[in-house]
């Protein structure tokens, strides 16, 4: 059933992400979501990233692992401002991620996952993971 509903569920998620972030289109929302997910992924070792991915709905899980350079070294969690700048630099010529991008995506994500499962997974990840996904 998860895969049967995947497209509909993802469209609903994107609409929430768009509206929460105050963006114009779901295409913009997709780019912001991708940037936030990749920024988070850069801070996780592969086993932790896969643990997190399993807490995501199917399409978000696919976006989270897509085009992953496993040779890229992980970076530590840093302040929200620093990580937000990383999100904003994700597609250098597309300056559309608001200063609240991480919190906006977190709020949308929490509407579309089992929060108990997500929080249990985040608690198992390195320090900084819980704060990253705080709406």
List keywords for this structure.
globular; mainly alpha; 135 residues; 8 helices; Globin-like
Question: Measured on Cα atoms, how large is the radius of gyration?
Answer: 14 Å
Major sheet characteristics: none
The chain-level mean pLDDT equals 95
Task: Please give the number of β-strands.
Answer: 0
Individual helix count: 8
Q: SSE order, as H and E?
A: HHHHHHHH
Name the shape in a single word.
globular
Percent of residues in beta strands: under 5%
At the fourth level of CATH, the homologous superfamily is Uncharacterized conserved protein DUF2267
User: Roughly how much helix do the residues carry, as a percent range?
Assistant: 55-70%
Assigned CATH class:
Mainly Alpha
CATH architectural group:
Orthogonal Bundle
Structural class: mainly alpha
Which spans have pLDDT < 50 for at least 5 consecutive residues? none
End-to-end distance, in Å? 28 Å
Tally of distinct domains: 1
């Amino acid at each position: 059933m998860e895969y049967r509903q995947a497209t509909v569920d993802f469209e609903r998620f994107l609409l929430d992400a768009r509206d929460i972030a105050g963006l114009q289109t779901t295409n913009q929302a997709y780019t912001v979501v991708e940037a936030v997910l990749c920024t988070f992924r850069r801070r996780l070792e592969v086993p932790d990233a896969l643990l997190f991915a399993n807490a995501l709905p199917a399409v978000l899980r696919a976006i989270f692992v897509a085009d992953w350079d496993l040779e890229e070294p992980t970076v530590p969690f840093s302040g929200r401002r620093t990580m937000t700048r990383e999100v904003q630099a994700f597609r250098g010529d597309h300056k559309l991620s608001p200063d609240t991008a991480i919190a906006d995506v977190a709020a949308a994500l929490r509407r579309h996952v089992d929060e108990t499962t997500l929080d249990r997974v985040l608690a198992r990840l390195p320090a900084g993971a819980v704060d990253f996904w705080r709406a």
